[in-house]
Amino acid sequence: MATAGHAVNAGALALEGVRIAIGGRTLVDGLDLSIGAGECVTLMGPSGCGKSTLLAFVAGSMDAAFDARGRVLAGGDDITALPPERRRIGILFQDDLLFPHLTVGGNLAFALHERARGRDERRARIAAALAEADLAGFADRDPATLSGGQRARVALMRTLLAGPRALLLDEPFNKLDAQLRGEVRRFVFDHALERSIPILLVTHDEADARAAGGRVLRFGDGGPPRS
């Protein structure tokens, strides 16, 4: 039973009529995509073809230099015009982006905001998340003392504690060695999918796509991604 994220059955993530261009060059054109609750869709293609830019469009953080059209819906709600902090879209990058000035527990607490009322509830939620990540007792640790795999698990649990409606993965396993990569991606997929969160993964690694176990869409020609 999932205890840390409280984002069970977040609903589908849908993209409708998405077109992204820059400087007269079309990166994505005519993309319609629906990712169901508990489903992962993988985007693959050469560097510079628009994969990460599409994730930024979904998250609401796309650079103003890009021209984008289309809609983003989460659980049936149109979130296209919302700022990133109101979209409730979680994202993991190659770098874990843990705050170096906070403890492990402080990093997790940052995600709770007003979702956990009172100090005792916040501590209980943090302790449950750490136990789920096999890091019980790590709340007071400095993130700098953690291994790469431990940092990756803390980063995921921090994202899940925020209660995301969808999860975006922008090559989050790319900097891990082969053995650790397999362990961490299994941890990420297991803990996100058991919460019925739609996942959109960007990767260059076919092994990542196989581990995700869902549809694979391939970018590269400026049109809609191909299956």
Can you give a write-up of this model?
The chain has 227 residues and is an alpha/beta fold. The chain has a domain at 13-101 and 164-218: P-loop containing nucleotide triphosphate hydrolases (Rossmann fold, 3-Layer(aba) Sandwich), CATH 3.40.50. Helix content is 32%, strand content 23%. It is built from seven helices and nine strands. The chain has helices spanning 51-59, 84-87, 104-112, 119-132, 148-161, 178-193, 206-212, and strands spanning 13-22, 25-35, 40-44, 67-74, 77-78, 89-92, 166-170, 199-202, 216-218. The strands form two sheets. The chain has a five-stranded parallel β-sheet with strand order 6-7-8-3-9, with helices on both faces. Strand 4 and strand 5 (77-78) form a beta hairpin. Helix 4 (119-132) packs across helix 5 and helix 5 runs parallel beside helix 6 (178-193). The radius of gyration is 17 Å and the shape is globular. It starts with 12 loop residues before the first strand and ends in a 9-residue tail after the last strand. The relative contact order is 0.23. Residues 1-8 have low confidence and may be disordered.
Task: Characterize this entry briefly.
By secondary structure, the chain is α/β, with parallel strands linked by helices. It is built from seven helices and nine strands.
CATH class of the domain at 13-101 and 164-218: Alpha Beta
Q: How would you sum up the global shape?
A: globular
Largest sheet: 5 strands, parallel
Radius of gyration: 17 Å
CATH superfamily of the domain at 13-101 and 164-218: P-loop containing nucleotide triphosphate hydrolases
How many DSSP E strands?
9
Q: If strands are numbered along the chain, what order do they take across the biggest sheet?
A: 6-7-8-3-9
- Beta percentage is 15-25%
CATH structural fold name of the domain at 13-101 and 164-218? Rossmann fold
Total of DSSP H or I helical runs spanning 4+ residues:
7
- In the CATH hierarchy, the architecture of the domain at 13-101 and 164-218 is 3-Layer(aba) Sandwich
What's the mean pLDDT score? Answer: 90
> Which runs of at least 5 residues are low in confidence (pLDDT < 50)?
1-8
